[in-house]
Amino acid sequence: MSERRFQRIGLVFHPQRPHARGLAEAVAEVLRETGREPVLISSEELRNGALVSGWDLALTFGGDGLLLHVARYAAPAGVPLLGINLGRVGFLTEIEPEEWAEQLQKVWEGRYWIERRLMLTAYQIREGQRRGPYPALNDVVVGRMGLGRVVRIRAEIDGRYFTTYIGDGLIVATPTGSTAYALAAGGPILPPELKNIVLVPIAPHLSLDRAVVLDEGARVSLTVHTEGKAALTVDGMGDYPLEEGDRVEIAAAPFSACFLRLRDRSYFYRLLAARLRRMVADEDAR
């Protein structure tokens, strides 16, 4: 049980998801009737700089991608997250749209627990100038852009040379991201509340081809060497061009993404098993 009071609630909807705005408006009306203060906003408006620091809760109407996006703003401000699933996978979201009234009542009654997930902070360094920070809940990816030559990435851990990756790129993932792009690239699956960082090479060529699990406190420095085009991608959003000699510094963020959970604490393994079965079924159907 929790005693936290949720008064000012941000309702963030995905503008391209059918029925997302309508459902958000319906929830907002109920919140007003119960004396709460809803703030209705689209994800595009949030991207344009809307502040979340005054919210007690961020309630999202979309899929996992929307939650990733909102977490970049909510987590630094200490605002917990709760997702209503209008997407396909629903790995991060908590509530199905047909049950929102019942599930939100559990929240108001304090029948939830907080799941804290590691986030990363990345900076791009070019000729001594630092750009960022770029917060990530899933992963930070340094890789080549389009077809062309491989990229060479000199990796240092805690200030000491580790190895040079040669291939399409490198994924630096959180436990949350271990079930996303990192999993597709052959990385391990980590429980969401672990504090480790995972390095997963993408299509490595004559270089280290195994994933490496690092401690939470590890600091990763990646220096790019390429004759083609390379980019930094954070949670699958935005491609920040990288030039020869650019460096990307990555470490655990000083804040966590806090998710309100209504299911029991073993939910992750059941959800993971269901997703893996679906992946196998989809592959067999091809």
From TrEMBL:
The active site is at D64 (proton acceptor). Its main location: cytoplasm. Its cofactor is a divalent metal cation. It is found in: Cytoplasm. It holds the Pfam family NAD_kinase_C. The keyword Cytoplasm applies. Its EC number is 2.7.1.23. NAD(+) binds at D64, G65, H69, N138, D139, R149, D168, A203. GO terms for cellular component: cytoplasm. InterPro entries: ATP-NAD_kinase_N (IPR017438), ATP-NAD_kinase_PpnK-typ_C (IPR017437), NAD/diacylglycerol_kinase_sf (IPR016064), NADK (IPR002504). It catalyses: NAD(+) + ATP = ADP + NADP(+) + H(+). GO terms for biological process: NAD+ metabolic process; NADP+ biosynthetic process. GO terms for molecular function: ATP binding; metal ion binding; NAD binding; NAD+ kinase activity. SUPFAM superfamilies: NAD kinase/diacylglycerol kinase-like. Involved in the regulation of the intracellular balance of NAD and NADP, and is a key enzyme in the biosynthesis of NADP. Catalyzes specifically the phosphorylation on 2'-hydroxyl of the adenosine moiety of NAD to yield NADP. PANTHER family: NAD KINASE. This is NAD kinase. It comes from Thermoflexus hugenholtzii JAD2.
